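If I may wish for something, please walk me through the protein I am sending here so I can picture the backbone:
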Amino acid sequence: MDEKAAPGSETAIFAGGCFWGVQGVFQHVKGVSKAVSGYTGGAKDDAVYETVGTGRTGHAESVEITYDPSKVTYGQLLQVYFSVAHNPTQLNFQGPDSGTQYRSTIFAENDTQKQIAQSYIDQLDKAKLYPAPIVTTIETGKTFYPAENYHQDFLTLNPTYPYIVYNDLPKVANLKQLFPALYSEKPVLVLSASN
């Protein structure tokens, strides 16, 4: 099940650990025009990195992806999300980061996205592609709040930062290897070079 390809733009919001790596992956997907790091699941007043980091806000570090469904479908974005961007079997942690703010969650923008995401998870569960159960949740009706500017484009701007080298650059390499038709060498950036 996937959405019908239509010109224009749609948004998808995925959470899967630290947003630096998730953003970095989706910035390299053809058909994506923007991938913004932020917070989803909690209140606006709590959408601040230091507060979200407590794990008590309901927010997850997330990425809002703007894409052209005639170039890349929601289903293809889900494939990248589950195969490259994070490990969907880890409950409330990814790599070295732990807490509910690092949970694996799809924030569906509408009923169609919710149905596609649930169908995809069901297919993965049935195929038993992972050594452990998928713990990814689907939430609806949540507002996305952009993160602070210093979190935007972090992977691209800090390619030698040890966390990025160890945790996130391999994800971009896996995207290129597993989905060469979707891979774009040049990332779409949130901030201009002057910021």
